[in-house]
Please model this.
Amino acid sequence: MPKDSGIGASSKRREDVRFLTGQGQYTDDINIHGQTYVHFVRSDVAHGKINSIDTSAAEAMPGVVRIFTGADFEGIGGLPCGWQVTDRHGEAMKEPAHPVLAQGKVRHVGDPIAAVIAESLEQARDAGEALNIDIEELPAVVDMKAALSEGSATVHDDLGDNLCYDWGFVEENKGAVDEAIKNAAHVTTLELVNNRLVANPMEPRVAVGDYNRANDESTLYTTSQNPHVIRLLMGAFVLGIPEHKLRVVAPDVGGGFGTKIFHYAEEAFCTFAARQINRPVKWTASRSEAFISDAHGRDHVTKIELALDADNNFTAVRTETLANMGAYLSTFAPSVPTWLHGTLMAGNYKTPLIYVNVKAVFTNTVPVDAYRGAGRPEATYQLERVIDKAARELGVDPIALRRQNFITEFPYATPVAVEYDTGNYVATMDKLEEIADISGFEARRKASEANGKLRGLGVNCYIEACGIAPSNLVGQLGARAGLYDAATVRVNATGSISVMVGAHSHGQGHETAFPQVVAEMLGIDESMIEIVHGDSSKIPFGMGTYGSRSIAVCGSAMVRATEKIINKAKKIASHLLEASEADIELKDGQFTVAGTDKSCAWGDVTLAAYVPHNYPLDNIEPGLEETAFYDPSNFTYPSGAYACEVEVDPDTGKVTVERFSAADDFGNIINPMIVTGQVHGGLAQGIGQALMENCAYDENGQLLSASYMDYAMPRASDVPFYAVDHSCQTPCTHNPLGVKGCGEAGAIGSPPSVVNAVVDALQSAGHNVTHIDMPVSPSRVWAAMNS
Amino acid sequence: MYNFDFEKPSTIADAVSAMAAEEAQALGGGQTLIPTLKQRLASPSKLVSLSGIAEMKGVCEADGGISVGGATTHATVAAEAGAYPALAALASNIGDPAVRNRGTIGGSLANNDPAACYPSAALASGATIETNSREIAADDYFQGMFTTALEEGEIITNVRFPIPEAASYQKFEQPASRFAMVGVFVAKYVDGVRVAVTGASEDGVFRWTEAEEALSGNFSADAVEGLSVSGDGMISDLHGSGDYRAHLVKVLTKRAVAAAS
Model:
């Protein structure tokens, strides 16, 4: 019988009450007395030299408070990059300066040139139009291959060329991989594009900077997934504000999907300017502004080769990828195509030899960084597409080919430096075949054909590395931060509990799921526990939420802190019950003495901790509050198998997703309903990438898909009812909850099966189509059918 | 948005005088104009709202046709134009509920977006566009993308549609905007068939005359089978080539004929 409370219960999301009744407190809801508004004047050319900026006419406009340009930021730090990749030759990546406001050159459409602060937003915009900016347009670097060619214009002249790094992994394996491919019985080759995406969280980015001159304190309210990361990066590297004088608050945040991890220029600007003008400064992005200033995602061009022996065993994988960095290095951009991508190229398979080469390229486009999945979708897509193509070339069943090559023994050390602790890929595939009714497909295909439609079935597996990560490992890999997390459990006198967590909830449901864990451990009601997050002045130093890490890393810290609470509470109880501490048991919120009927309630102990009249003051301190920091010893490795069935309209090329099934292994699960919701959202984004979303630039670096008129977001009617199952559970062996993380799985696992299904549908009608690049739009399908 | 004056007259006559101001701009449902203003891409001195003019609202039947007031919303047409089912169906599928409850037929026809639905209905029906000063035949009204026969300050007060024997509108949506990537309206009258295509051409809505001739002789999908549409002059963009749009014109025409009732 399903539980109704604690770990494993589908407790209703308590935060939804305020979200659904319009009572969420988002950054834009914060208005401070004396607030000013900033409008950023942004480049409308992709690449240009700033000859001059004349602010005099604009400064005389009504309501203008101050106008800033790049010159005001000379001597102030630029935006730092949080990860340094070392290339194949042992050299550090090229790391260009990233000024808060453009200095000397503009490098992408949307690059901020000047910031106009006024009493109202409209006045700021009026004055922005009165700026006299002389920019000499330069040739734009857009296409990655062209960017690396001799004689290309350079995005950063001081770097000499547009290559950020040329990364090889594992470099020592390269010769053996080359040899294996040369000697293979069969090699399948596929060239593909992992399309550039715009994250499009429902809430655009917002920043409010405030400065208190009385105590020299700065506060930044911002739409961030990780307020402490922003405080560290902005305080230490950009503005030079010590931590005790800088507070960063990320209140309710309306979706992040990665794009709100990064430290952005607008945050630094509002914090800086508030101090300069001694007034609060507010910025709210318009949706149009979001398209040209939020970090984009994906944008890889890859060639992958899969080698097989005569028995169809995978013998080697070799890939070459061009990864777009955009015009500047966003906070974690260099890590995405390297350590979050190359380490996943084994997938679910025991391929013994793997070599991944990635060239990261600067272009005159918006910076590219992590977006839901970040590197892992790119790895999964190319691997699962090439396996499907190989199955077709060899005339074998694509599911059977996968099964034959599955890793079946754990722990498993891959040839790409990671060790999978647990998994059961056979079980998830079995479950998938059941929930997707694979055996019924042929009948459904016939029914579609009778309606004049082509039907296709696509299947894929995925593996991801979540719960990032052991700090000492990522430090060796170039991370400039630790990746632990922290929680403080504060038990109040009457027994209620506030848990201050370093993770940040921006849709994930932490306020519901985290209390379930503490409630389970203490045997008290979930409603007695509340989660506090998002305010650096209230919470311990944690690294925030991304990479499906919150419950695996921060949840583990919370468990550790709660264990400390239990230990201390038992000491107090042993005193109250006049029994040995070793005999004290805690169950259902009651402390009992083993083998007796003596007991006291949770509330008796907590009250004693704060009103210590009868208390072992000689031995322990009053109060009941504990903090733990948790640094994981490994990544977690969620995995699964997905199946997509599509119908293709042969007249128009339009693809509709008729069925989608997902069998996931997330290890132990805290709240099944929330996990299902996470999978649903991820699938919608993955299907969106596969069929619809396309962030496209023209050859001059103008963004063609700069609004929802041209950027196709999936809607409810574009996705089917999903069959989602997460009953296959191989618990993580190295964190206390045995959890793996579920936030990104849907987005990682779904694109390949959609494209595999479209190819299958077209082949069923005799079209010799082996690949169509995403998004598999109607026009692309039609072109493929008619090529 | 820049500052502007705002007037909301209650009669056509008052609207016409309000529109006499320099740089005045009529405001229908605002579903195109308001976003344009918000992006500061237009700066009218005055907005003259037509939504308070009772005599420009509603659908009525007259002389074997229906008459739709210029300020009638898509939702109202969808609900009340039952005498012309293909027109009601078209209106019921424009945009989303918010658009349908604000946007008006007059606003759509005056804007003449090359991907809008209504121009195809007006042209295929041989509708008559009535303004405050004259009547314009649909064949004379549409003059290219965002271009019409309307003079400065002229207001669409009413649109008269003769009701065909059979008609259907088939829309293939552009994946992002959900406007028509191609939309084809086929209308069969006693004196012949008219086929109007929206979304496809760089010149805006147009009549596919070869299909009209073929269908006037034989009103069946097979009649257009042998025809082809050239991709020259068709819109080519992120969402599809001119050739693809040309192909869709034929596909949708066949579907419209098959569905016409």
Residues 335 and 697 of chain A are 24 Å apart (CA to CA). Chain A has three domains: 16-22+484-630, 31-83+98-140+205-284, 300-403+410-469+634-785. Residues 550-576 of chain A form the longest helix (27 residues). Chain A touches chain B at residues 122, 125, 129, 288, 651-654, 692, 694, 696, 704-705, 708-713, 777-779, 782-783 (CB under 8 Å).
